[in-house]
Amino acid sequence: MLHKIRSRAYLTGNDSVLAVADVNIDDAVIIRDCRLLKSADGNIEAQLPQIKNKDGTYTQTVQLINYQSVLMKSLKASIFEAYTNALKGNPPVSKEKTFEMEKEQFELQRQGVKAEIRRINLPDCPALKAIADITIDNWLVVRNIRLVAEKDGKIKPVMPQKSLPDGTRCDRVAIKDDTLLEKIRTATTQLYMRHDVPQQSAIAKADDMYMFP
């Protein structure tokens, strides 16, 4: 099964962080804040977005748990092409590329959207009910999704965000596919509503599963 990937790069003017990029996979998921890094020995690598913890360590907000080799190779090539175009003064985007995961294994491992939540109780932020991590089709993990109670009492998943220079915020991981977004909402909210267990993993029911394009 072929998948599509394309990138938009933003030059940083930094010798070690060459560019920051947004990567679009299958027009379903956009991963923002990917970095193109150059090491002291001249090697160039792609890095998925991270957040800095209070203790100075870093946590990846996005992780690839299967097919890392083919995915990271495709991601790096796509970002590097967009970066090269930007250096030449051309539009800082890459052409759409295709890549293929191992078909038989991929079909066997498709598991829809799984969720794991950590309930929290913050007196100064009562609307924030839990933090969720999700796994999509057993290869893409998104961490630190906030489950927020809206005024009507419904629980809404909010993707990890970053602050922009103008004071606004945007999602680090943007879900562009409405079906996938609904499956994420279903998996996280159904698990949150299970009051019998304070913390556990769960998978959406078979008829609620999202199959990546």
UniProtKB/TrEMBL annotation:
Q: Which UniProt keywords apply?
A: Cell cycle, Cell division, Septation
Domain of life the protein comes from: Bacteria
Q: Which InterPro entries match?
A: SpoVG (IPR007170), SpoVG_sf (IPR036751)
**Cross-referenced Gene3D superfamilies, in alphabetical order?**
Stage V sporulation protein G
**Biological process terms in GO annotation:** division septum assembly; sporulation resulting in formation of a cellular spore
> What does the record list as coiled-coil region(s)?
none
Matching entries from PANTHER family are given as: SEPTATION PROTEIN SPOVG-RELATED (PTHR38429)
Q: Tell me what this protein is called.
A: Uncharacterized protein involved in the regulation of septum location
Instruction: Tell me what organism the protein belongs to.
Output: [Eubacterium] siraeum CAG:80
